[in-house]
Structure prediction request, 179 residues.
Amino acid sequence: MLKRTARHQQGFTLTELLIVVIILAILAAIVVPQFASSSDDAKVSALQANLARLRSAIDLYYQQHGVYPGAAESQNGPACPGGGTQGGGAANSEQAFIDQLTRYTNAAGNSCTTTDAAFKFGPYLKKDTMPDNPITALNAVKMETTGALGMIGEATDGGWRFDVVTGQFIANDQDYDHL
Prediction:
């Protein structure tokens, strides 16, 4: 008589695999939204840090010059020492604003890439460009001369918005202009 031995099949049944897949789907549905909201939180934190740094630079420039950056032209001043490059921005322009925050300046706001006794102020920012707005990924500065407080962001331009008269500096975004 032949003796039959019972063989146990190794592996998982279809039901067991389906249960594991369902559990993984439920966990993914819980975890994935948490990552999305944390990246939004990181962007808002970066925006707040950039705003604080830029506003501090603007305030320091105002304390040393008596006007906000961009209000005076950054060009046509005395020659830069040591062959430095002079700024190229007319008054109330984005270029003058950037020149005056990222280069050495004299009392009149003329900017230069090198320093001496006349160009003794600044630079207020370490880079030659404005940092990006982390929400819109744009770094353009829309200059205003209205002098009205309570400026709000626009839906189309992104970047930053600055009023040369009041010194108000905001994120040019309707959802984050209040920060």
